[in-house]
Design a protein that fits this description.
3 strands
Length: about 230
C-alpha cells in the first residue's frame, strides 16, 4: 500500500465513524493535503534525479539568466526536506481530527501530537506508531536537515565530477564523452567542518529517506483509532 492509498483508506473509514460534519470536512482537507505534500516530495526528488549527472562547467545553458545547476540542486534539496517534514505535520492534523485530540489547529505539529499521545494515550496503537517513527534514524536526520535548511544555513554538499573523453572512430561500450557527477550530503548539517563518511548521495539517500518516512506515515494512519 502506498501513502496515497493509506490516506484514502483512512478517509473512507472516517466517513463511516466520524459523525460531526465539520470534522469530516477537515479530515478530507487534511488527507488531501497530505497527499499533495507527498506529491511535492516526489516532484522535488524527480527534479534531483534529472539533475543527477549534470554539473556547472559541463552543461552549458543557452539562457544567461538560467539558475546554475548547483542552485537548482540546492533548491530542490531544500524543497525535499521542507515538504517531507510537512507531510508529518499534516499527518498530525489528520490524527488530531480523526482521534478527536482537541488540539488547536494552529498549534498542531507532528511533535505536538506525539507529546499529546504520550501524555494521554500511552500504550495505544497510535502512540506506539508515533513513538516508533520518532525513534528512527530517518526521522532524526530529516529533522536535522530540514531545521538547518529552513532556519540556519545552506546544507553542505560535496560534488565530484568525473569526465571521460575517448578517441573517435573506435568501437567501445560507450559513445562520445561521458560525465559522471556524484553529490554527497554532509553527515551532520550542524557541523562547521562537514564530514561525508556516511556517503549519503543525492538523490539515492533522499529517495531512501522518503520511502522510510512514507512507510512510517502509512503505519500511523493504519494504527490510528477513529473517534465519533
Amino acid at each position: 500500500m502506498s501513502l496515497f492509498d493509506a490516506a484514502d483508506n483512512f478517509l473512507k473509514k472516517a466517513q463511516n465513524v466520524v459523525t460531526q460534519k465539520t470534522r469530516k470536512q477537515k479530515l478530507r482537507l487534511y488527507c488531501e493535503g497530505l497527499k499533495a505534500k507527498a506529491g511535492q516530495v516526489d516532484f522535488a526528488l524527480k527534479r534531483l534525479k534529472a539533475l543527477e549527472n549534470q554539473a556547472d562547467g559541463v552543461v552549458t545553458s543557452t539562457d544567461a539568466n538560467e539558475p546554475s545547476i548547483q542552485s537548482n540542486v540546492e533548491f530542490y534539496c531544500d524543497s525535499f526536506w521542507a515538504f517531507l517534514y510537512s507531510c508529518l505535520d499534516v499527518l498530525g492534523q489528520v490524527v488530531n481530527q480523526g482521534g478527536k485530540l482537541g488540539l488547536n489547529e494552529r498549534e498542531v505539529s507532528f511533535n505536538r501530537v506525539k507529546k499529546k499521545l504520550d501524555a494521554s494515550s500511552s500504550g495505544s496503537p497510535e502512540q506506539k506508531a508515533f513513538a516508533d517513527c520518532a525513534k528512527t534514524r530517518s526521522f532524526r536526520n530529516l529533522d536535522g536537515y530540514r531545521n538547518c535548511s529552513t532556519h540556519r544555513r545552506q546544507i553542505y554538499v560535496k560534488e565530484k565530477v568525473k569526465f571521460e573523453r575517448q578517441s573517435s572512430g573506435y568501437q567501445t561500450t560507450t559513445t562520445g564523452n561521458n560525465v559522471t557527477v556524484e553529490r554527497i550530503l554532509c553527515d551532520n548539517p550542524l557541523d562547521m567542518k562537514p564530514k561525508t563518511k556516511q556517503n549519503r548521495t543525492i538523490p539515492k539517500y533522499l529517495a531512501e529517506t522518503r520511502d522510510r518516512i512514507f512507510k512510517s506515515i502509512e503505519s500511523i494512519l493504519s494504527s490510528t483509532r477513529l473517534v465519533k
